[in-house]
Amino acid sequence: MSRYTLKCFEKIEAPDGSGNLHWYKFIIENSYNTITNIRCGSEKEIRQFAKQTIKRLNEKYLTSCKVKVFNRMANESGISANL
After folding, report:
1. What is the rounded CA–CA span in Å between residue 14 and residue 21?
2. Neighbours of 17 (CB within 10 A)
3. Domain definitions of the chain by residue range
4. How many whole angstroms separate alpha carbon 69 and alpha carbon 46?
5. Which of 3, 17, 31, 46 sits at a 20 to 30 Å CA gap from 53?
6. DSSP letters along 3-47, please?
7. pLDDT, tens only, 23-80
C-alpha cells in the first residue's frame, strides 16, 4: 500500500479579509487519496505542520491496516473433509 507524501507546497495570495500576508497551500497524497490544505504562518511552521500531518496519516494507516486471512478449502490436499 502507498504511503502519504507531500506532492506540492507553494505560497499563495492571502484570502480576502485576511490580515496575514503569508499563506501556503500544500497537497498530501497517496495512490488513493489527495488532501489539499491552506494555512497561514511562516514557511517553516507550515512545512513542519505538513510533515507532522504526513507522519500521523502514515502511522494511522499502518496501524489500522487489517490483514485478511483465508482458510484453506476443505478439498485441498492434506485436509480431510470429514472434520
Report:
1. 6
2. 5
3. 5-64
4. 41
5. 17
6. PPEEEEEEEEPPPTT-----EEEEEEE-SS-EEEEEEES-HHHHH
7. 999 999 998 899 999 999 999 999 999 999 999 999 987 655 555 556 655 555 555 5
